[in-house]
Design brief:
This protein is 21% helix and 38% strand. It is of the alpha+beta class. The chain folds into two domains: 1-110, Thiol Ester Dehydrase, Chain A (Roll); 126-290, Thiol Ester Dehydrase, Chain A, CATH 3.10.129. The chain has a twelve-stranded antiparallel β-sheet with strand order 1-2-4-5-6-3-9-12-11-10-8-7, sandwiched between helices.
């Protein structure tokens, strides 16, 4: 059987249709919409295919316009905006049914030396210790709702280990912050461009959940509608998703049926490899209209 990681690597191996034109396929997940992180990652791969491999992505900024249809492939059209002395700029549009569902700008840079500083990683318990403790805590396992357990136990290419489950076990209003350990569930090749694309894929996971913490709400609640509106990411240093990364997140604001969330991705040794931010739709459904 194909593993989740092998399936992810397969859908990121885009088919070249024509100069600047690529086709991406969708996994059979049973979901009604294509996962936003998949579209971001495939768009980045399409852009990378048109860039000198000695230049690496340092930032991307995308907008989601329509939900992706998982039943048909996605066409990615790349616009080679600029090839400068140090930086390369690309724009990518993802298309289905003749309409743009996602647009992204990405910038690439040749390697340069310069000033070096980073914020410190917040102290968090070791992921292996968390897994071991939770597996042996029968009382905790019995208290986890079935839908929450099914979500966290679902086979996926990226393993997620939240440092706290309090948000999923209570309706209490909590500080707008969370920390989740991430790691690929299978071997990812030592390819910097591919590692960056998979990190972009993973960066769309759990971010908007953080905006619900101060309201005592969860993405599983039937009266909540949540959807990504935009996504930005900055790549600071090379990454290896075969080892644990800490995804430290916070949300500074929810207003106007939107929530803003930010995240920092650290290696287990504390090296900051990327930062991300996302605004999403967070709408309370009108129960009378459902």
């Amino acid at each position: 059987m194909t593993t989740a990681v092998e399936e992810l690597l397969d859908i990121l191996d885009l088919e070249t249709l024509e100069h600047n034109l690529f086709r991406g396929h969708n996994p059979n997940t049973g979901w009604k919409r294509v996962f936003g992180g998949q579209v971001i990652a495939q768009a980045l791969v399409a852009a990378q295919r048109t860039v000198d491999p000695t230049r690496h992505v340092h930032s991307l900024h995308g907008y989601f316009m329509l939900g992706g249809d998982p039943k048909i492939p996605i066409i990615y059209e790349v616009d080679r905006i600029r090839d400068g002395g140090s930086f390369t700029t690309r724009r990518v549009v993802a298309i289905q049914h003749g309409h743009a569902i996602f647009s992204m700008s990405a910038s690439f840079q040749r390697e340069e030396n310069g000033l070096d500083y980073q914020a410190e990683m917040p102290a968090q318990p070791d992921p292996e210790e968390i897994i071991s403790e939770r597996n042996s805590n029968e009382k905790l396992l019995a208290s986890i709702p079935d839908n929450v357990r099914a979500y966290w136990m679902k086979e996926r290419p990226i393993e997620m280990v939240p440092t706290s489950l309090e948000h999923f076990l209570t309706d209490k209003k909590l500080p707008a912050e969370q920390n989740i350990w991430l790691r690929a569930t299978g071997k990812i090749p030592d390819d910097r461009a591919l590692q960056a694309a998979i990190l972009a894929y993973a960066s769309d996971m759990t971010l908007l959940d953080t905006s619900l913490y101060p309201h005592g709400k969860k993405v599983f609640d039937p009266d909540i509608q949540v959807a990504s509106l935009d996504h930005s990411m900055w790549f600071h240093r090379p990454v290896d998703l075969n080892d644990w990364l800490l995804f430290s997140q916070d949300s500074p604001s929810t207003s106007g049926s939107r929530g803003l969330a930010r995240g920092s991705l650290f290696t287990k040794s504390g090296r900051l490899v990327a930062s991300t931010a996302q605004e999403g739709l967070i709408r309370i459904k009108d129960q009378k209209r459902v």
